[in-house]
Amino acid sequence: MARRTKFVTIEGDPEKNRDAGKTYVITEVSAVQAEEWAVRAVMALGASAIRIHDALRNAGVGGVALVGYQVFMGAAPEAVLPLWREMLPACVQLRGVDSAQGAMVTLPWSPTIVEEVSTLMALRQAVLELHTGFTLAEAALRLKAAASAIQSSS
Questions:
Q1: What is the pTM of this model?
Q2: Residue 91, SS3 per DSSP
Q3: Dihedral angle at the C-alpha atoms of 62, 109, 120, 33, nearest 10 degrees?
C-alpha cells in the first residue's frame, strides 16, 4: 500500500504572508520511523521532568499528538529541536503538474521553501495529523477524555 499524503495550501494575503498560495505535499514516513520519533519525543519530555501519565506514554505517536506542542515548551531545546527538524523533510513544495507524464513537479525539502514561521507550524501540525489520523483539535478532545479517565481511576 502506498504511503498516505496530505496537501497543505497556505492561505492568506500575499502582501502579508510570503508563503500565501504555496502548496506543500506531506508524505507519511514508515511506521518504524514514526514510532521511533514518538519514543524519542516521549523520552525527551520525560528527561525534562515533565510528568506524562503512563496511558499517554504508551500511546506512541498518537500520545505525542494528544500531549501537543505546549508540553514541548517545558522540554530542553537540545532534545526538542532535532525532533521538530525531523518532521519537515516529509514536506515538499508543489510547483505544478507535468501534464505529459501526469506527475507532480515538486521542490524537495529545504529550509528555503518556507518563508514564514506560521507556515512551519502549519506544516508540523499537518505532519502530526497525517501520522496520527486525527487533528490537533481532535487530539485536545481525546486528551480531555483521557484526563477525565485518569482522574476517575485515581
A1: 0.72
A2: strand
A3: 20
